Amino acid sequence: MRLYEIFVQKKSRMYIRQLYSPKEAGRMIRRFGSKKAVLFFGIILVFAAVSMPFFISDLAGVSDPLKSLERNEYGKGSRTASLHVVSEDGYEDDIRIGVDERQYTEDELETMSREIDGILWETILGENPGMDNVMYDLTLPSKIKGYPFEITWKSDQPLVLGSNGTIKTDRLKEKDPNDEGFIVELVATLKYGDHTEDRYSNVILRQAGRSDKDQRSDAISGVIDKADKNSRTQSAIILPEEAAGKKIRFYKTSSKQGWIILLIGAASAIIVISSKDRKLKEEADERRKQMQCDHPVILNRYMLYYMAGMNPRAIWYEICRRYEEESKQNIAGRRYAYEEMIAARNRMEEGCAELESYDLFAARCDDIRFRSFINFVKQAVITGGRGLNVILYEEMEKARREKLAQVKVSASEAETKLLLPMFMMLAVVLVIVMVPAFMGLNG
C-alpha cells in the first residue's frame, strides 16, 4: 500500500470518480491523497518544532533539583505546581501542591498607599476640571490598576453627594442656592487583608453651567432669529456673519442621497442576481417535470412503432423526425426529452456506438424512468425484442399511474397558489360589504 492511499477514504474515492472522468480519476485520487499527507505531516512538524523548547525546559528542570517555587504577583491568583519528589531511601512520587499568590508586607503597603494618594484624587475627577470645581458626577473606582487595595467611598453629605459619586442637583441647589461652592468631605477606605487605611479630601461642588457648545449654539440661534425678523419681507434670509464675537460661516449639509441611491443599487443588484439564480433553478425544475411528463408519451410511441415491426434504431429516428416536424409547425414547442433524443441520434450518425449513445442519453436525462426505458431499448437491440411485449405493457401501465399521481400533485400545487388570490378577493368583498354598512350607521 502506498502512503497516499492511507489518506483517501472509500467515500472520497467514490466522489472523485463521480466528479472526474475515468482517465483523470486515478491521478486526482493520488493528488488528493498526497495533499492530505503533506498537510498532515506539515502540521506535525510545525507542532513538533513549537514543542521542542518545552521538552528542553522539562529535561533541564528534571536534572536540577528545585530550591524554590515562584509565587504569582498580587491579583494573578494562586496556582498549582506539579512536582516529582525523590527521597534518599529510594521513595519517588508525583505530587501537586497549591502555591498562593504573594502577600505584601506592611512597609510595602504603606509605601503603596502613599503612592496611590497622589493618583486617587485625580482619577475620580472625570470631566471635572479640579477638586475645587466639581460640576459633574465623580468616578469613584473600587480598584486602581497596579495596586492591591479594595477601595470603598463615603461622603459626609450623602444627601448631596452619594457614595457612588452621583451629585443630587436638587439638593445641591437647596444647600447652595447662590452657587458659592458647597464643600463635601470624601473618605476613601483602602483595604488589603487585615490592613485598612483611610484617605481624606474635600471637594467643592458647584451647580453645572451650560457647556461652551450649548452657549455657542444659543448665540447662533439668536443671531439667526434676529436675521429672520429683519428680512421677513425679503425673498431670502441674509445669514449672519458673526455670533458671540466670532465670525461664522454656513454650508449646505450633505443630503446623502448619493449613498442612498448607491445602497439601493447594490440591493437591487443582489436581488437581480438572486432572482437569476432562482430562475435558473426553476428552469431546471421545469425541465425535470417536463421530462417526467413526456416519458409516458415517448414510451407509448415507442411501443406503437415496436408493435408495427420497426427496429429500435428506426423507432428512435422516427420519434425524433416527428418531433422535428411538430416543432417546425410550432405544435410541440421545445421539449427537453426529445431534444436529448435528437442529440443521441446525432451522435449515432457521427459514428458513436448505438448502445453507448443510449447510455449517454440516460445519463443526460438523469431520471430513473428514462434509465428503465433505455434498458428496454438496449434489450431490444441485443435480443431482438423477444418477450419485450409484456414488459412494455407493464411499463406503460406503471407510467400511466405515475402520470396520474403527477396530475394530482400539480392540482394540489395549483390550489396552494390560488390561496393568496382567494384571500385578496375575500378582503375586497368584505370592504365592499362593510364600508356601506358603516357609512349607513354613521348617517
Number of strands: 7
- The H/E string reads HHHEEHEHEEHEEHHHHHH
The DSSP helix count reads 12
Helix percentage: 55-70%
Major β-sheet, in short? 3 strands, antiparallel
Structural class: mainly alpha
Cα-atom radius of gyration: 45 Å
Strand order of the largest sheet: 3-4-5
Low-confidence spans: 18-22
Mean pLDDT: 75
Task: Please give the alpha-carbon distance between the first and last residues.
Answer: 96 Å
What fraction strand? 5-15%
Give the CA-based shape: flat
Description:
- With 443 residues, this protein is mainly α.
- Among the domains are: 3-62; 106-205, no CATH class; 274-411.
- The chain is 60% helix and 11% strand.
- It contains 12 helices and 7 strands.
- Strands 3-4-5 form a 3-stranded antiparallel β-sheet.
- Helix 2 packs antiparallel against helix 3, helix 7 (257-307) packs antiparallel against helix 12 and helix 10 (354-365) packs antiparallel against helix 11 (368-383).
- The termini are far apart.
- Residues 18-22 have low confidence and may be disordered.
Topology (elements, then pairings):
Blueprint: H1 3-6, H2 10-19, H3 22-63, E1 79-86, E2 92-99, H4 106-123, E3 150-155, H5 169-175, E4 182-192, E5 195-205, H6 212-230, E6 242-243, E7 246-247, H7 257-307, H8 312-328, H9 336-349, H10 354-365, H11 368-383, H12 388-442
Antiparallel strand pairs: 1-2, 3-4, 4-5, 6-7
Helix pairs in contact: 2-3, 7-8, 7-12, 8-9, 9-10, 10-11
